[in-house]
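Hey, weird one. I pasted the CBS domain-containing protein sequence into the form twice and got a warning about non-standard characters only the second time. First submission, copied straight from the form history:
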Amino acid sequence: MTQIRDIMTTEVLTCSLKDNVYEVAVKMKDENVGVIPIVDNDRLVGLITDRDIVLRCIAEKNPPSSKVEEIMSSRIVTVTPDTTTQEAARIMAKEQIRRLPVVENGKLSGIVALGDLAVRDLTDDQAKHALSDISEPDETQSFH
């Protein structure tokens, strides 16, 4: 059975709590990524996505100089390098997320994306199921 360590990206761009939202956005643009893990002393403390920037910063009229800590998602779902790809797909589907930070002994060691799972040992059906569940709107959320 394939483990996350076999497919994860190990060279992960990160930011720190000292960075501001503008700096994160520039890194996202330069590296063409939609999520950046936030670390403090090598420990994963949050994630910031392009969506977080739009919804929690721009839409709320916060300045680009806002602290990352005010915008990032601090509820983080993670996996370990030993997690199987099937379990990772199940977690992504359940949590409706497309990316999972990989943490070992509290430290960020990589990241795995739904696309990584789709092109590896998962069957097409497993990848489709995960994507389908992630893409389904949450019935408990209301959109105004």
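That's the output from the first submission. The warning seems to come from a hidden character in my clipboard, not from the data itself. The longest strand covers residues 43-49.
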